[in-house]
């Protein structure tokens, strides 16, 4: 892969990783409700899960989904259902979590697994593989695409968790927290609209 292509790939990875979507709305809510440190496993889970999704798509899963449209529909339904469940959990939260025994953020494994049913993650992975893999060097180019996202993803998602953490003091008022969490839940559900269209 030429250096200019790799730089374009890094730019694509940055823009697609830092723009609003299910992961970033959940990180904003997690940063606000649990703080930055307790959200770190969630951030690592997103990075690891998305890298594994990219490798899966790059090494043949995308072709499998095209061959079996029913599998693609099943993933959409599972992803949409899980997003609705997460939105319900987020919108129902009414107090900032200080005690781990009372409430806990999404774990690394949960965040990693979520990437496999996250509609935006699938669109990003398929688009990246179509645009940036080289048919003459398929294995190497798939690895380079995954590397680009690994380099960019964690810093990008950290911004959203950081924004949420900054909001914690403002959200110490229970009414403001209630409306923030309801808004985050609604925004999370709204990310389903492009998937349904």
Structure description:
The structure is a single chain. The protein is mainly α and 197 residues long. The chain has one domain (22-94, 101-196). It contains 9 helices and no strands. The longest helix has 32 residues, at 36-67. It is globular and about 55 Å long. The model has no long low-confidence stretch (mean pLDDT 83).
Oligomeric category: single chain
Average pLDDT over all residues:
83
> Per the principal axes of the C-alpha atoms, what is the gross shape?
globular
Count of the domains: 1
Order of helices and strands: HHHHHHHHH
Secondary structure class reads mainly alpha
The span between the termini is 34 Å
User: Uncertain runs with pLDDT below 50, 5 residues or more?
Assistant: none
Give Rg in angstroms. Answer: 17 Å
Strand proportion:
under 5%
**Number of DSSP E strands:** 0
Largest sheet: none
Helix proportion range: over 70%
Number of helices: 9
Search tags:
about 200 residues, mainly alpha
Summarize, please.
This protein has 197 residues and is an all-alpha fold.
Map the helices and strands.
Elements: H1 3-18, H2 22-34, H3 36-67, H4 69-92, H5 108-114, H6 119-132, H7 138-167, H8 174-190, H9 192-196
Helix pairs in contact: 1-7, 2-3, 2-7, 2-8, 3-5, 3-6, 3-7, 4-8
């Amino acid at each position: 892969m030429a250096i200019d292509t790799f730089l374009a790939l890094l730019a694509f990875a940055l823009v697609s990783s830092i723009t609003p979507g299910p992961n970033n709305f959940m990180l904003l809510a997690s940063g606000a409700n649990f703080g930055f440190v307790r959200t770190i496993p969630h951030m690592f889970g997103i990075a690891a899960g998305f890298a594994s999704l990219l490798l899966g798509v790059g090494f043949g899963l995308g072709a499998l989904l095209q061959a079996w449209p029913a599998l693609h529909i099943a993933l959409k339904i599972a992803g949409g259902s899980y997003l609705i469940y997460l939105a319900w959990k987020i919108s129902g939260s009414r107090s900032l979590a200080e005690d781990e025994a009372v409430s806990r953020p999404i774990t690394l494994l949960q965040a990693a697994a979520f990437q496999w049913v996250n509609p935006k993650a699938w669109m990003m992975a398929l688009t990246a593989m179509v645009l940036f893999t080289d048919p003459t060097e398929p294995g190497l180019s798939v690895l380079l695409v995954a590397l680009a996202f690994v380099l960019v993803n964690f810093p990008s998602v950290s911004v959203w968790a950081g924004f949420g953490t900054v909001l914690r003091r403002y959200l110490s008022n229970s009414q403001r927290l209630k409306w923030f969490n309801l808004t985050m839940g609604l925004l999370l559900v709204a990310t389903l609209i492009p998937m349904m269209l």
